[in-house]
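TICKET: design request
STATUS: open
ATTACHED STRUCTURE:
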């Protein structure tokens, strides 16, 4: 044997013998299929304490390896019993997509080839699929076809990418090379969003850009939770007069507590007037624009300089899958592009394509677009329109149940699939000490939600609307039916009654 062969005979790799790989792979598919089969019945979240679950997974770094079937068996033994099932039809927490079967398969396929879509060369097919998927998303919501954009990890990353692009393009000094340290820098940069429903992803983005969290100015909202554009105009004017530097306004297209859609046409006009970047945070709701019945609410979104939309929310993608659309892709590229000889050959070649690393904060990037591309191809616009309409029908049905029950109170009319309301016993409505009653209702509603989570029947969360704790349900699963809504509402009513009577006894 040659010396090379002798050395090589001691090399190892992570590969399994192909027959063993197949056996494991089929077993994993069986496990996943069994999971999907039972997804309606499983408790939506585990009821172990965080300390208990942490303990369960605390173990030493493995020095010697174990057989793959032992490792994979952990999925059934330890991981699934401690999972929260976002794919359950009765999962209504945060704004979390429910995943799709085809996307699960797509993720496995994407991992197998392991293309890096940061650059064209290590990911030619992945790049082109991402490019067309981004175009499709724009088309889906009626955004200009000339736009560019990219898939990112989620709404926060999309918002951050948009705000940095806004800053680069609207700042009065060279923020690319000198950052905030330019000697020409004076005055405070300002971003505007609505006070009640503006999302903290915008605050986090301002923070990450080192503009400070206070750079985000809260614009008063109207009774329907949308931005008061008269107030916006006044604030921008006054800030400019006092030497500040407004550069961006963020509109909500489907807000976090009530699904509000800001008046985007009016905001676009104000942005034009003061030369500001117009960004739409449509993480929760931009895709609602695909529904002809809702389309008028989105008027003006097509005028935005950039739009965040989050396929891992209302397009039901498994994590992670966010997206940013930018009207002028060259503005995006100029904001992020940094040249280095090791990123791309120094001389142009016909084999160079689009390098997504020039368009966003990430360099190496996974192939997140595949799952969305496959699901869109499999389900089509019509299929998606049906699913979105189902979710809206569920939110409306819930609203009707709330209105018909004298012990519940809606916080708003549902526009999309997000709905907030509270348990408010009828006999407490006439009480005079409003602040005392509000405090009581806050505890009551939070306790109802804690209990329903522990029951495993449904996963629901609370939030605050106009300073009151509300039950907030995001009906964002393609599996949810009207019957699920009724089952959950009945349970909420039962818990409300039982907890209310118990709390009254203890506070009497
Ligand atoms: C309006 C809005 N923007 C941004 C985000 C952040 O999205 P992600 O959690 O995907 O980063 C959310 C999350 O719910 C949101 O509702």
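STATUS: resolved
RESOLUTION: sequence designed for all positions
ATTACHED SEQUENCE:
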């Amino acid at each position: 044997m040659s010396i090379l062969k002798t050395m090589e005979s001691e090399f190892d790799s992570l590969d399994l013998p192909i027959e063993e790989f197949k056996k494991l792979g089929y077993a994993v598919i069986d496990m996943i299929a069994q999971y999907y089969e039972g997804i309606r019945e499983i408790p939506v979240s585990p009821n172990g304490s965080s300390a208990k679950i942490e303990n369960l997974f605390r173990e030493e770094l493995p020095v010697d390896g174990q057989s793959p079937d032992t490792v994979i068996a952990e999925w059934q033994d330890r991981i699934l019993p401690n999972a929260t099932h976002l794919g359950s039809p009765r999962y209504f927490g945060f704004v979390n997509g429910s995943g799709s079967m085809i996307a699960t398969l797509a993720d496995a396929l994407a991992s197998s080839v392991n293309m890096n879509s940061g650059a064209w060369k290590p990911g030619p097919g992945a790049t082109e699929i991402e490019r067309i998927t981004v175009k499709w998303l724009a088309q889906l919501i009626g955004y200009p076809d000339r736009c560019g954009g990219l898939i990112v990890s989620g709404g926060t990353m999309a918002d951050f990418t948009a705000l940095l692009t806004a800053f680069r393009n609207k700042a009065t000094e060279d923020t690319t090379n000198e950052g905030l340290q330019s000697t020409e820098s004076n005055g405070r940069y300002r971003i505007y969003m609505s006070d009640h429903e503006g999302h903290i992803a915008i605050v986090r983005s301002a923070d990450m850009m080192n503009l400070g969290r206070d750079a985000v100015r809260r614009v008063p909202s109207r009774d329907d939770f949308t931005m008061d554009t008269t107030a916006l105009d006044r604030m921008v004017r006054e800030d400019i007069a006092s030497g500040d530097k407004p550069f961006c306004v963020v509109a909500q297209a489907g807000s976090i507590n009530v699904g509000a859609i800001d008046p985007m046409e009016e905001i676009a006009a104000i942005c034009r007037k003061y030369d500001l970047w117009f960004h739409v945070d449509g993480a929760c709701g931009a895709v609602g624009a695909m529904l002809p019945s809702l389309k008028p609410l989105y008027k003006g979104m097509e005028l935005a300089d950039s739009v965040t939309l989050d396929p891992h929310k209302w397009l039901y993608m498994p994590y992670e899958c966010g997206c940013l659309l930018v009207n002028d892709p060259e503005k995006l590229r100029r904001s992020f592009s940094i040249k280095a000889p090791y990123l791309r050959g120094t001389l142009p070649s016909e084999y160079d394509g689009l390098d997504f690393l020039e368009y966003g904060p990430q360099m190496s990037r996974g192939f997140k677009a595949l799952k969305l591309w496959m699901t869109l191809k499999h389900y089509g616009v019509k299929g998606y329109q049906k699913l979105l309409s189902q979710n809206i029908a569920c939110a409306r049905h819930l609203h009707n149940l709330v209105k018909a029950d004298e012990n519940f109170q809606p916080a708003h009319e549902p526009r999309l699939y997000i709905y907030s309301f509270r348990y408010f016993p009828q006999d407490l409505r006439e009480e005079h000490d409003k602040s005392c009653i509000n405090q009581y209702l806050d505890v009551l509603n939070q306790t109802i939600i804690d209990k329903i989570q522990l029951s495993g029947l449904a996963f629901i969360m609370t939030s605050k609307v106009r300073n009151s704790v509300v039950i907030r349900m995001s009906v964002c699963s393609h599996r949810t039916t009207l019957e699920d809504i009724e089952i959950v509402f009945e349970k909420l009513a039962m818990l409300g009654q039982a907890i209310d009577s118990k709390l009254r006894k203890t506070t009497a």
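CLOSING REMARK: The domain at 23-45+84-100+380-508 is CATH 3.90.1150.170 (Aspartate Aminotransferase, domain 1). The pocket of pyridoxal-5'-phosphate is lined by residues 94-95, 154-156, 159, 199, 201, 256, 281, 283-284, 310, 322 (CB under 6 Å).
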